[in-house]
Amino acid sequence: MMDLYIVHPMYNLKFVETLMIRPNMNFAMVACGLFILISGATISINKRNEGIIEFYKKRLLRVLIPFYIAYIIYFIIKVFTNHTIFIFGGVPKWRFIFTIFGMDEYLSANGIRTFSLGVGEWFLGCIILCYLVYPLLYKIHKKNRLVTFILMTIYYVLINLNYDKFNFKIVSYMNFLCQIYNFYLGIAIADTGMLKKIKKWSLAVTIPIILFFYFCSVNIPMPDNFKTTIVIVSLLITFYQFEDLLSSSVILKKVIMIFNEISLEIFLVHHFIIYQVDYMLGYRRLSGVETLAVIIGNFILTILLSIIVKKISSIILVKIRR
User: How much is the pTM?
Assistant: First the structure.
């Protein structure tokens, strides 16, 4: 929607923007925050007695191998469409180290010129940083859960209330220093088994919270990150309570499992597919039918390329483990 409507006004999608960006809820912020929250929870649930080096090796390979494949694919596409390999405009060669570690787009969002192609965007660098601090964060959490929760919450409140004073170039919801709290909440929720302790009646609280933040037309005077955190925790609890119902449908369960398997790959490829398709269309004005066809086509291409990247990554990872 951003590229079709805001960056390159190819079709008026104001009505979609109105549905997705509310005064107190931004679907993009919610999706990213929820992914980071679930990532923290998933790592804690699947935690094994492995050393720090083994943990880093497993997590970084799982993230970086698909990134390298997606990056190479898009680089080849860019070279063919631009008819030149010189597509970065004089970026110092040594900064390719940022690309090797998957940090190029995150640093680019911080105002540092890199060899970024937009693959994985800021999100990839942010989640990698979360993985890097996980062993220490988990250890501190295990030492004293209550004290850690209080200190992390105070930190989160202070950094958001004073965010403008730090002169960050990156917006707050993209900043690792803010997103680390959502990652920590995932760790805390999983480690304490909180979800299993919450009863069905919690839906009487979480659903109204979600609906309130979505439909409230008056901008609540608090940082957007606070609103997002409240919403994603409410969504996590809500979906957990509906888990039995969702898994009762074999087809729906299968679809969810497929998307779960390729969720990282979708994050990596979906934007550059959108960028490339719009570029190939010459950023011309589209009709309503053409816009719908482009959106559906982008979705199909994203799923297909995500599956391809996943398959290639799996083959490479098996060879590395051998």
Answer: 0.91
